[in-house]
Amino acid sequence: MPVSRTVNQEILSFFRKIEDKSTFYINSLIVSGFAVSHGLAVGKDNLLTKYLLPAEENNLIKFVRLIKSSPCFNTESLVELFEYVISPADKEVNGAVYTPAFIRIFIVKSILARYDMSQWTSMLYADLSCGCGGFFYTLIEQIKDNNPKLLIGAFIRDNILGVDIKEFSIERTKLLLALYALQNGEDLVENDFNLYCQNSLSNEFTEVPVVKHHGGIDVVMSNPPYVASSKLSEENRIYSQTWEVSQTGKADLYLPFFQLGIDCLTHGGILGYITVNTFYRSLNGSAFRFYLSRNGYDITIVDFGSEQLFRGCSTYTCVCLIEKRNTGLIHYVETSSKRLNNINNEVFEAIEYKELNDKKGWILKDKNTSDRIRAIEKVGKPLGEVVSIKNGFATLRNDIYVIKPNRQDFRYFYFEKEGQEFKVEKSICRKAVKANLLRLEEDLDLLVEYIIFPYYLNNGKVCIMEDENFQKNYPCAYSYLKGKQSALAKRDKGHKKYPKWYAFGRSQALNINGERLLFPHICDSACFVYCEDDSLLYYDGYAIFAKDHRQLVIIQKILKSDIFWYYITKTSKPYSGGYFSLEKRYIMHFGIPELTQIQEEELLALEHQAQVNEWLKPFYHNMLSI
C-alpha cells in the first residue's frame, strides 16, 4: 500500500488490527463511521441503511474518534480507504490499485473539455475495471461543479456503467456514490445503478440495457488492471488470447483492456486511461501498436517517464487519451506530475503514425531527435548484425543454485543458506558472476560466485546428468538440491516438465565460450566490462561476443561512447534514478561504423574515452556537436 495522502496512518493501522475482516463488516464500519462523523441522516429506503452499525458498537466509536481527529477525512479519503482494504492477493491477481485524485481529475477534465458542456449529461460513461468507483466520483464531482442543479441519482442511473470482476468492488462503488449523493441531499437505492460483476474481457457488458439505450458508450475512463502475463488467472489468460492486441509476446492484462475499451466506443468517443508507458516500445505491445496504427486513432500521450506515480509500485506510467476517429496522429509530451496542470496544446509534439515503426517500437520524440536517431541507426551496420548478444543462464531459483562459499578445502565448498551450513563438491561448481552488478573489470574478481552445475559436455553439447551418476559422484551437491526439490518444483508455477527435477529453469547460456563484454539489464551509464575468462558463466545480464579480440575491443570503445549513451537515453526504457534499459532490443539497432584497418588502428590506439568520443563524431555526422 502506498503511503496515504488523505488517510492518516492511525486509521490504516486501526483497520489492520480489526479481527472481523469480512467484507460486509468492513463496509458497514466505513459507511457508519463516515455517516456519523459527517452528520449524515440516512433515509429508510437508502441502500446504505443495511450497513449502519449500532451507535454503541466499539469499533465504530473508535473509528469515528479517529476520523474526527484527522485533519481531513472526506469523500476522497473514502476512495483510498476502500482501495486500501482490498487484500494483497486481489491487488496482484486483479491489478487493483488506488489512483491518485489528481490523475483522475486530469483525465476527466481532459475528456470533458473535448465536448460541449451541454453534452455532458447526455453521454454514457463507463469504467470497465471500476474498482471502488473513484473515476465515477471524480466525474460526477466535476460535472456538478459546473452544473450545481445536477441530480446525482438520475445521472448515475442514466449515464454511468461500471464493470468489475470482483463483487466487493461493485458493492463499494455503490457505497461510495451513495455516500457522495447523501452529502448532496440525495438517497440512492439499488435500482439507481448500472454496475455489473463480470469479466470485462468477455464483452458481456455491451449487451446490457443502458448500452443498448445509448447505442454504445461515449467515454471509457479507467486505471486498467496491470497484471503481468505470468500472473494471469486461467480465466483471464483464455479471454486475453481472444483479443487482437494480445497476439504478440507475453501480453499483460492492460493490453486487451485497451482494445475492449476502444472497440465499445461510439465513433468519435474517447478513452482515457492511466497505464504503464511501455506499450509503445515493448515487444509485448507490438500487436497493440499495429492495431492503433492501422486504425489511425487520434492519441494523446502524457508520459511521466521514469517518475513513479504509484508509491509502492515499481511501474512507470502515462496518461492515454484515445479518440475513436482516424487522424493518423499521436500527440506526445513527457512531463512530471508536478507540471501536469500547466500542460497546454502547444507543448505536445504531433507525430504521424507513418513515421513510426510498429514492429521495433515507437520513438516518440521531437522531429530533430527522431531524425538524429534514424541517422545513427543508418551508420554502418546494426550492432545486432555485427556481434552476438546473448542472455545469461536462468535457473529460475538462483538463490538455490548460486552459492558464496565462506571457506573451502581441497574437495568442498562450504556455504550457508537460511542459517544452515552445507558443503558441495568443488568439481560440480562453475564460476559465475551477476552481470547486473558489474561496472569495472576489477569487479569480476570481487563479485565472483559459484553455481552448482549438474551438467556435462558430450561432443560439445551440454547434457543433464543422470540421477544415478549425480548422486554417486556428487553426493553432497545432490543431497543439498534434494532438500530443495519441493521449491524447485514450483518454478514456472509448477506447470513445466523439466528433463530432471534439478535441471535449470531454462537451457540458455549453458555452453557459451569465448571472451565477451558483460553488461547489466539497466544502467545509468554505458557499462561494458571486458571478460577474458571464457569459462565464466553469467546471469542477470547480457554478453556480447565478437569474431575476435580486436573486434570486441573496438565494439567496447564504441559502446562506451557519448553517442551510444545519447542513443540509449532517447530510445530505451527509462527507470528512476537516471537508469535506462540495455535490453537487447534497445541496443541491437545502434549503428556500428564500418572502419578501415587504418581507422581501426587509430581507434585502438586511443587510451581515454574522451578521445574516443571526439574521434567518433565524424562517423555519426557530428550530431552531438550541433
TrEMBL record:
Catalysed transformations (reactions): a 2'-deoxyadenosine in DNA + S-adenosyl-L-methionine = an N(6)-methyl-2'-deoxyadenosine in DNA + S-adenosyl-L-homocysteine + H(+)
Organism: Prevotella aff. ruminicola Tc2-24
Domain of life: Bacteria
The keyword Methyltransferase belongs to this UniProt entry's keyword annotation: yes
PANTHER family: DNA METHYLASE (MODIFICATION METHYLASE) (METHYLTRANSFERASE)-RELATED, DNA METHYLTRANSFERASE YEEA-RELATED
Name of one Pfam family that matches: Eco57I
Main enzyme class: transferase
InterPro entries associated with the record: MethylTrfase_TaqI-like_dom (IPR011639), N4_N6_ade-DNA_methylase (IPR050953), SAM-dependent_MTases_sf (IPR029063)
Keywords on record: Methyltransferase, S-adenosyl-L-methionine, Transferase
Domain Type II methyltransferase M.TaqI-like: 159-310
GO molecular function terms listed in the Swiss-Prot or TrEMBL record: site-specific DNA-methyltransferase (adenine-specific) activity
Protein name: site-specific DNA-methyltransferase (adenine-specific)
EC code(s) of this entry: 2.1.1.72
Similarity section: Belongs to the N(4)/N(6)-methyltransferase family.
GO biological process, one term: methylation
